[in-house]
Design a protein that fits this description.
about 375 residues, alpha/beta, seven-stranded parallel sheet, 17 helices
Amino acid sequence: MKIGFDAKRAFNNHRGLGNYSRDTIRIMSTSFPENEHFLFTPKIDPNIHFDCPENAKIILPNNGFDKVFSTLWRSFGMVPDIKENKLDIFHGLSHELPWGIEKTRTRSVVTMHDLIFIKQPELYPAFDRKMYKIKYFHSCRIADKVVAISEQTKHDLIELAGIDATKIQVIYQGCNPIFHHKCSADEKRDVRVKYNLPKHFILNVAAIEKRKNQLMILKSLVSNNIDFPIVFIGKETDYAKTLRAFIEKNKLQSRVFLLHNVDFKDFPAIYQSASLFIYPSTSEGFGIPIIEALQSGIPVIASNEACLMESGGPGSRYVSPTDEADLGYAISQILSDSTMQEKMVLEGMKHVAQFSDAAIAKSLMDVYLSLQ
């Protein structure tokens, strides 16, 4: 089978969509080496570490116009390359399919991660919201199959975009195999020294932006008199200024650590060094950092968004993303109860077993085969 992927995010995105794209390509290329894979990308960021699989070919814009207007190539110029390579399947890994693919013999699949731009429009400029609606809804309409990364995303696609439920298949994400590595005490110590981290800390891994709700964590620690270090890891936006102002006002400089550009290879040791992981996001498609935390064997507190309850499973603790007192009580209770921590970790490890590479590979291949 010849399978094409929209690999723009795999080659150019450090965050969630990039991780999903890289993992999907890795899983499918290693699980089904007999297939040919074609990775379509308008450019390659040299700062993104992504090894092209041996059974994959990178497709870039091949003429002057497409190279200059690479965004247009991704939306309108890839179809001739799809035809030329006689692809059986083309999978848009991040919300989009090229216009005109529905007129080819190639069957199409699109992965939809979320509709946050509709659910929380205040987080996006008006122009971006309009363009997302046009492109995303169009892709869902012309796709032969839509993959939703959670039941919540499927529900949103049905309710907010009017997509036929029978067209949507829920396939959960997993996490990179690097998180399956059990770090030694020396490895954890070396990473803590490298980033000047305390021996015990609370962890949050997410872009430092309003939707991720890191300020609520800080407010909860202060209002509930919880004297415990916390580490935030993520790309900073203007929202980070709000956090820094709160940190300075409340004299938290000695116990709040803001990190970015952390080496990916160091994430397992950081996760495994944490005492507790908190993810109070107000809106998500799924929440991969929660899976990474559970796989790393640490307790999780998340907001009671439906999709986060899917990723966190029955062993995690859920709180309202606006209730500082409830979050503070949960933090204090878990940090002070080793028996509760052990139970949460065991439940978490059972839950993440369903997000294995093998399960994801089988589910995606079943979708592809159903279209042949």
